[in-house]
Amino acid sequence: MDHFPIIQALCRTAMAEASPAVRKQIERLRDALKKDGDEKQAASIAGILTAAQRAREVAPSRIERSRAQWVGETLAPNTPVPVDRETAAALADIIFPNEISPRAPLFNSTVSQAITTILEEWTNFDVLSELDIAPSKTCLIYGAPGTGKTRLALWMAHVLKLPVVLVKLDGLVSSFLGTTARNIGNLFSFANRYRCVLLLDEFDAIAKVRDDPQEVGEIKRVVNALLQNLDVRRDIGFTIGITNHPKLLDAAVWRRFEVQLEVPKPDFAMRMAIATQFMPPIKAPDSHLRLIAWFTEGATGAEIESLVRTYKKAMSLRTTERLDLLSTLRQFATLNAARVQSERRALLLDEPTNLFRAMRDDPVLGFTMADIGEIAGKDKSTVSRQIGKAQKNDEGH
């Protein structure tokens, strides 16, 4: 089937909040693929349906049984959080499940299945207990900035119906090094007292390599204090660490995390799914979504969201002189040069014919002359003539 990765991504997006009617149509697609002998593609769609079913099985009754296994008191909106003694600044923010978006973040099937596995361990706490096995209680999520790591961690807490004690570790660092170690101790004592997910953001701010010759002995003791508190918490609650810089982490830090989940930058199909998710209420043509996904190769989900916002502004604010898609992309590439892959940016800002040829020849895009003409604001015969003329010029040279 042509463009199956796109169909696969759209199915995964639809199943995130699928009605019975949507699920029925995706099941029909699975059955049709199998009937036509497309076993591999049918299996892929079946996997999406299975993963969605498992996610739905995280039913309230099972979550309640899981929560019953947690020790500690219940966090309330008026529960005081620990503060830095020197500055009186709060050491953490409390985020409750009803404050977190219920929409699952978009990742490829491999990452999504891994996340489902982690949640299944917690929602089947009682089953694991009968086998004398505990669910994974520590998870390190790492990857490039903007790939959705914090959003993922918050969503996991939402599914588990647990409040989040969110800590940006750079905020724990005090000019008084002894105060930093005390802040860490107070924070963990607080998290260990309540039923919650402890989310340690910007984990590399403290957990640096301890043998760095530029670090003084006191900093090393601060890192040791962090490791000791992580060890104590392993038997108490769920802890998630997040970092953009995994290479800065000490090997001893890595060993503290049972799950080490890398969040990759999205592939073409996922980039299209992300663009589709953020596009409403604007209704963009399929060719526009494909070109946005192609243009954002190497981009993160946050960068794709930023481009979609630019597109929506262009489509809605300029009612009389509406920018075409290529002009919108050029505008974005000019204002966000560091966020755009250099090859794609060069094509956009170069002679349009070179871009048309690249769009025509790219097998992932699968554009027809009509698609290119619609995007460029020209008829397909004009585009064809321009490309043909450029090819003759190249052959002449």
UniProtKB/TrEMBL annotation:
InterPro entries, A to Z: 26S_Proteasome_ATPase, AAA+_ATPase, ATPase_AAA_core, P-loop_NTPase
Keywords (A to Z) from UniProt: ATP-binding, Nucleotide-binding
Residues of the AAA+ ATPase domain: 135-267
UniProt key word ATP-binding: yes
GO molecular-function term, one example from the UniProt record: ATP binding
Top-level taxon of origin: Bacteria
Pfam families assigned: AAA
Membership in a protein family: Belongs to the AAA ATPase family.
Protein name, per record: ATPase
